[in-house]
Design a protein that fits this description.
The chain is built from 9 helices and 2 strands. By secondary structure, it is mainly α. It has a two-stranded antiparallel sheet with strand order 1-2.
Length: 230
């Protein structure tokens, strides 16, 4: 019996799997969580094994739901992001749908003790707005039109300043049209003179003010051999 145990230790079973490290197990568990989240199931639940296809509307819902929150999972959306979605996607037109209407609908569809809405409540809210935005159409057609406004859209990132060409700005920055003391601060090419254009500096060259041939004598003397300027 002892000899059989020794032989078994020397020749392990071929089909036995090697021990996995803790990091490999963690990565596998994280991948499993992402997979079950996308399939609409949870760990230990009896969810469908077939992956659920995410529609373009739900994909946009998730993009706006996680906007500005790195911890968000994309399953629920707060009121701020809901308002941003309606604004960025053109649901708010300022006539039939206003920001106030959007806030009222959000409070109507969400749970009383909750500050967020689920994807199902999100579609209910869109149905409420669709009936006001497209009054001439049926409820189904109106909802479809609102969905088209949102499908495939992502949050608009604000804070980017764009340069705007304005005739007024161009006129105010054209140095050739400056007059008075402002004109003296720039040369013929439009380049600033610096301190010389702001402060009146005394002329110590020895020439009379306005003399056009200043410095010509020094040039003539330097051009003749054997002579030094005085």
């Amino acid at each position: 019996m002892e000899e059989f145990r020794v032989q078994t230790a020397k020749h392990p079973v071929p089909n036995s799997s090697p021990m996995r490290s803790h990091s490999e197990q963690s990565r596998e568990h994280a991948a499993k969580r992402l997979s079950t989240a996308s399939n609409g199931t949870s760990d230990g639940g009896a969810g469908s094994k077939t992956p659920v296809e995410i529609t373009a509307l739900e994909e946009s819902f998730r993009r706006f739901a996680i906007h500005g929150d790195t911890r968000a999972a994309g399953k629920e959306m707060n009121g701020k992001n809901w308002s941003k979605l309606c604004k960025d996607c053109g649901v708010i037109d300022g006539k039939s749908i206003t920001l106030t209407d959007v806030d009222i609908v959000f409070s109507k569809v969400k749970n009383k003790s909750s500050r967020t809405i689920t994807y199902s409540q999100f579609k209910d809210a869109l149905g409420e707005l669709a009936s006001k935005r497209f009054k001439e159409k049926s409820s189904e057609d109106a909802a479809r039109e609102v969905h088209r406004l949102i499908e495939g859209k992502s949050p608009v990132i604000s804070g980017v300043t764009r340069a705007v060409a304005s005739p007024t700005v161009s006129r105010l920055t054209d140095t050739t049209k400056f007059t008075g003391s402002h004109k003296e601060r720039f040369d013929e090419t439009g380049r600033g003179k610096g301190k010389a254009g702001r402060v009146e500096m005394a002329d110590t060259s020895g020439y009379v003010s306005g003399y056009k041939h200043a410095g010509s004598y020094e040039k003539k003397v330097q051009g003749k051999p054997g002579q030094k300027p005085m």
